[in-house]
Structures are given as C-alpha cells and as structure tokens.
Amino acid sequence: MINNKISEIIKARKSVFPSQFNGKEIEKNTILELLKNANTAPTHKLTQPWFFKVFSKSSKTSLAKELIKQNKLIQNTQKEDKLHLKFQKSSHIICICMRRDKTKSIPEWEEIAATAMAVQNIWLSCVDSNIGGYWSTPKGIEKLNKFLNLKKNEKCLGFFYIGIYELIKKRKLPRKNIETDTEWLD
Ligand SMILES: Cc1cc2nc3c(=O)[nH]c(=O)nc-3n(C[C@H](O)[C@H](O)[C@H](O)COP(=O)(O)O)c2cc1C
Fold it and tell me: Is the pLDDT at 71 greater than 80, yes or no?
C-alpha cells in the first residue's frame, strides 16, 4: 500500500498564478526551506544539475525590465504594466537553472528532467500552506542568459513565481484517464 498522505499532497498540488497573490513578502528562510526540498531530487550520477537565482524586492523590477527589453514590449504599455503587476504581486521569482557537467556525461534531457523534479519538490512543499507558485517559461527566455550571468553550459528553464494567496477559486482541470493510457504487460 502506498501512503495516503502522499497521494493527498500530490493531488492537492496546483498552480497558483500571480494575479491571485497579495503582494506580501515571504521570509527568506521559508524560501530556503523550499530550495532545500528541491535539492533532494534524484539525479543520474548525482550531478545535481539544478541551481537557482532568486529575485525579490528591487531585483524583481530589474528582471521584469530586462524581460520587457528583450521581448521588445517597451512600446506596449498594456503588456508592460501587466508584467510589472505580475512581478509586484509575487514575493519571489525563482529562476530555474540547469548546469550540465563539464564532460556532458549525462544526456541533457536527463539533467532537465532532474531539474523539473527539483521544481516539483518546491511545488509539493507549498501544499497546505498559503504559499502558491507556478512555473512559467516566458518567451525569449534564452535572451536573458547574459543578464542572468549564465555560462555556456548553463540554461534557464523558466521562472517559478512564488507568492502568498488568501482565497483561491477552485479549478478543476481535466486529467486524462491513465488506465486507458497504460499498457500492462504481465
Ligand atoms: C515545464 C512547465 C512549464 C510551464 N510553463 C507555463 C507557462 O509558460 N505559462 C503558463 O501559464 N503555465 C505554465 N505552466 C503551468 C501549467 O500551465 C500548469 O501546470 C497546468 O495548467 C496544470 O495546472 P496545475 O499545475 O494546477 O495542475 C508550466 C508548467 C510546467 C511543468
């Protein structure tokens, strides 16, 4: 038998979008706890390819400005304001980064998969708290490499927006029927 509590946590995980955040700041120690949980994700040869750049306070604005600049949204006030609001409502924005080992002994997809598992740990850690988050892969993310000081063997795989929310509208997303999409080979 599997642990019911774990099934409940997995099923309760959900995306909470910045429009639902109240703009309050989460303590740095709490963010660190989330990252420590991320850090327990499994990896082939224990390469631990994930690393994070955490933006808060004024650095969030710099990141938003850079995204606007790189995506040439400067002339689009509506889009610009929407993005700034998204950043303001978030407490922290975690840039999800992945570093391949120098010898490239592990295929890139495995390192990306391992990094995604680390993100899932963050997401699961938010269950049953008033901390919400969601993974976004903004257009032109690779154009941020210089701003993020990434080296040749490093990539940013998206942003994890984190914030505090009070009430949330129930969302029921359809999930496919895994029984019909599983082949049992006894
Ligand atoms: C790798 C990855 C990238 C994602 N990128 C985006 C994105 O760019 N924009 C977005 O609105 N949602 C993005 N999402 C969030 C998904 O839309 C969300 O997880 C999905 O709708 C299921 O909802 P749930 O997380 O509440 O179960 C991403 C999720 C993952 C795992």
Answer: yes
pLDDT at res. 75: 75
Q: Residue 51 maps to which CATH number? A: 3.40.109.10
Q: State which of 9, 11, 14, 15 you would mutate to test the pocket of ligand 1, scoring each by most atoms of that ligand within 8 A of its C-beta.
A: 15
If one counts the domains in the chain, the total is: 1
In a domain, 11, yes or no: no
Go through 82-111 and write b for each residue having 16 or more CB atoms within 10 A of its CB, e for each that does not: ebeebbebbbbbbbbbbbbeeeeebeeebb
CA–CA separation, 31 vs 37, rounded Å? 10
Mutation to probe ligand 1, out of 10, 137, 169 (largest number of atoms < 8 A from CB): 137
Q: Which domain holds residue 73?
A: 16-164
Ligand 1, closest atom to CA 134?
A: 15
Q: What is the pLDDT of residue 76?
A: 79
Query: In which band, very low, low, confident or very high, does the pLDDT at 4 lie, cut at 50, 70 and 90?
Result: very high
Is 68 within the bounds of a domain? yes
Nearest partner of 100 among 148, 144, 44, 138, judged by Cα: 44
Check residue 141 and report its DSSP letter: G
Phi, psi torsion values for 123, nearest 5 degrees: -60, -45
Query: Is residue 122 situated within a structural domain?
Result: yes
